[in-house]
Amino acid sequence: MKQFKLPDVGEGLTEAEIVSWKVKPGDTVKVNEIIVEIETAKSLVELPCPFAGTVTDLLVPEGTTVDVGTPIITVDDGSGAAAPPAPAAPPRDDMAPPVPEDPTDPSMIGTPGEDEAVEPGLIGGPAPGGRTSVLVGYGPRTTSATRRPRKGAGASGATPAAASAAAAQQAVQTSMMTTPTPVREPELEHAAESAPAHTVGDPVAGNGVRVLAKPPVRKLAKDLGVDLGTVTPSGEGGLVTRADVEAAAGAPAQPAGGAHRAPAVAGQRETRVPVKGVRKMTAQAMVQSAFTAPHVTEWVTVDVTRTMELVERLRTDRDFRDVKVSPLLVVMKALLLAVKRNPDVNAAWDEAAQEIVVKHYVNLGIAAATPRGLVVPNIKDADQMSLRELADALGGLVETARAGRTQPADMSGGTMTITNVGVFGVDSGTPIINPGESAILCFGQVREMPWVVDGELAVRQVTQLSLSFDHRLVDGQLGSMFLADIARVLEDPATALLW
Known about the structure:
Elements: E1 2-5, E2 15-21, E3 28-29, E4 34-39, E5 44-48, E6 53-58, E7 65-67, E8 71-76, E9 126-127, E10 131-132, H1 160-178, H2 189-194, E11 212-213, H3 215-224, E12 239-240, H4 242-249, H5 277-290, E13 295-303, H6 305-316, H7 327-341, E14 347-350, E15 355-358, E16 364-366, E17 368-370, E18 373-375, E19 378-379, H8 387-402, E20 416-420, E21 439-443, E22 447-453, E23 456-470, H9 476-491
Parallel strand pairs: 11-12, 16-20, 20-21
Antiparallel strand pairs: 1-8, 2-4, 2-7, 3-6, 4-5, 6-8, 9-10, 13-23, 14-15, 16-19, 17-18, 21-23, 22-23
């Protein structure tokens, strides 16, 4: 009998909400089979099972937020050893600090019992430097421990079956560190091919066909009490959409980013919504930034008529036919060119060392409104990309964010951000800098306005840019020059050829 504890899926997250179980007691699971979907403070993540066996108990109900290290499921692996008792985790008080997991607890995920030995580098086994391999990365450095080998084991201290299972667990570890898609190692090929066409626990319609719906839509259905099996899909390929769920629930359509709002109940004057997930992370980050970095914001109004003409030409260009081209793409390129001319603006403040760290790369963040709230994934090394490569990266970033699949690593390490409030019909704003970054550019709506051109009044397409920057890193002159360079490229994109 083994317990699977909630792992840290990256970036030092301390808690997660159990969104939906993919298995139930009595189900048989294979190594690397998806068993649960969790929602962290940054994304939806599917967790694979690191061992095979029969599910005996689901220790945490759906909708419950628990700390990393909390046992969430028990699986009978046929070993005969009883799992330590683990009462069902009660709902967390989101305002209370998480209880840290004891890294020396021998019941940690993947840690073998005293009668087992695991090969070096595998989950639960010794790793370089005396650390212990866990589901993601390595645990803290510890002194080496001597374990009694399994009876009947060879020189390696593990049976062939145990070694095979440990190798499969290593595949789980590798997949969790790189991509949410389970790794198909050679020893897992047969298991993957013989797996059922749908995941156990997914909703099924009355005709026995699996219901197709994206994770945010499934979560919305759960929140509204809608059985996905009774919803008529309207999406391509029989996909259930957000509108289908809202129609089935009789709820009004919500704009992107509004899924966190609780529906109003007749007779109630107030509704309390728990602060968790993306909303909680955003609140903490913005408070930290606002009270740590001295913000300065500058504005400039720009005639972007030529930029809009360029966008229209790119949309018909054969090299851009299969990607979405928007004014935001040109704004991104303009910012990257301005960073090249003003490299000191791309920096970070190291409080501990009392140093300014100038970055020689640009990880460009794009603020995206999603059903789960505002997230800011970033495009790594955006300054090294061509305009077409930026278009591809932007399209993939937005699609992944809206599906709720942005991984924690994609939202860390940013150096500068763009927020596009123009899509909401807003002219401008004073955005708050992401912690650890130097500046954030706000791009307002593009609209027709009277404008003086060569001494005569004309109707032009105009937008407003605002730049918030950390005044510890960027003084007024540098910030002004940086913003003016962005405006210059948007006013006349041909300027890029000179830089």
